[in-house]
Write a structure and sequence with these properties.
The chain is an alpha/beta fold and 489 residues long. The chain is built from 16 helices and 19 strands. The strands form four sheets. The chain has an eight-stranded parallel beta barrel with strand order 3-4-5-6-7-8-9-10, surrounded by seven helices. Strands 11-12-13-14-19-17-18 form a seven-stranded mixed beta sheet, covered by helices on one side.
Amino acid sequence: MTTTRPQRTLLAPGLEISRLVTGLWQVADMERDGRTLDPDVAAGDLAAYAAAGFDTFDMADHYGSAEIIAGRFLANVRAGKAPAGTAFTKWCPKPGAMTPDVVRDGVQRSLDRMGLDTVDLMQFHWWTFDHPGYLDAVKGLARLREEGRIRNIGVTNFDTAHLRVLVKHGLPIVSNQVSFSVLDRRAAGEMSDFCLANGVRLLAYGTLGGGLVSQRWLGAPEPTAVDDWSKMKYKRFVDTIGGWDALQGILRALADVAAKHGASIPNVATRWVLDHPAVAAVIIGARLGEREHRADNLKVFDVALDDADRARLGEAFARSKPVPGDCGDEYRRPPFLTASGDLSHHLDTVEKVYRAVPVEGRPGRLRIDSGSIWEPVCGYSRAVRAGDRIFVSGTTATHGSGEIVCPGDPGGQTVYILDKIAASIAALGGSLEDVVRTRIYIRDVALWEPVARAHGRYFGDIRPANTMVEIADLIGDYEVEIEAEAIVG
């Protein structure tokens, strides 16, 4: 039986979506020459997608005029002039103080552009976890959810460690939107395991590698230039996994499986991602008014991969290199796998969390405070730099002036602590790569493994000297405390 409409899934209670979501990031690319798409014409294109069952649309506050187009479409839906549809968006603020007003203004801007009083899914992106403002931002989103301005909260490009911080802090996250494809298989591991264990669903993008995962490129020579932002981005993924030969090996395997099923290469590549149980849906980009592949995309639901198919694909995967790191790392550290490439210049402009101040009467000595109420009372600094040495005090998972992060979860607390240590060292002119020693204090020896694994994610390549000590009674309701020492230069 041939599928005539996309399959559907329940992303969250009361929120049913198409398993093939229409992504509108290409609007920004289509408008990069300064022109703006006609919102009425583009809204008509969305209506055509919705009529065919592709009625779930994904966008962001920086995807050109995508929110305005969606708003026009949704107005037509309310007027009975277009079939029903659902629109998701993303809020991607520059890291800084995330006050309730900042969060409210960011969300309201999208609501205004979309002509909505409430949005079904607001997804949140954060550029650098050294800045802890993401916690305040998501707490602000949770308050707006309670007010009815947001029905569900998702995140985008969060790694497993920081998704854990949010979830174990009790924040209501229903989804994480991440790169996931036959080229980029990072989400199939620890990320999927965590999501399945904690009721979070994955929305997968990049599944067709900006069009590189298609028959057009099978056996084709490597391009000397690419013609759109999406291909610029995913060509960097291809280079990272072993180059054009690695891509060709994967395309040949996809073609073999596709021929067996009477399907296309994109069908098989999409089916492989959809088969992962943590994945709710795949997001496929659309160039509105230029081209659409709805008929071919529907065929993905007529493909059922068997063990032989997965083995054939696995052989090709084994001949490629894995994309390093975890989901979202491509936005925060080398190799920067984005359309614009190296983002270090952008990250360097992010507001520092802490400010170094000279120590009076001690030339060459600097210190920072983290804002803890106890630092001035007890007479200590979060970190001190003396010459080329940086010393970070015993640090706990304390947010702001006293909120305990991830109570009862040692892994989440360790992640938050190490981010705090990284920010402290950065404020004094160093980095985690300069750390030569860490000391970890844990409440109970039974807690050692999640703490050690989190430490390993940060320091696996740096390998400082380390001591872990069981302390029966840490001061306060904490599971772990960490101190560090670094030598700069």
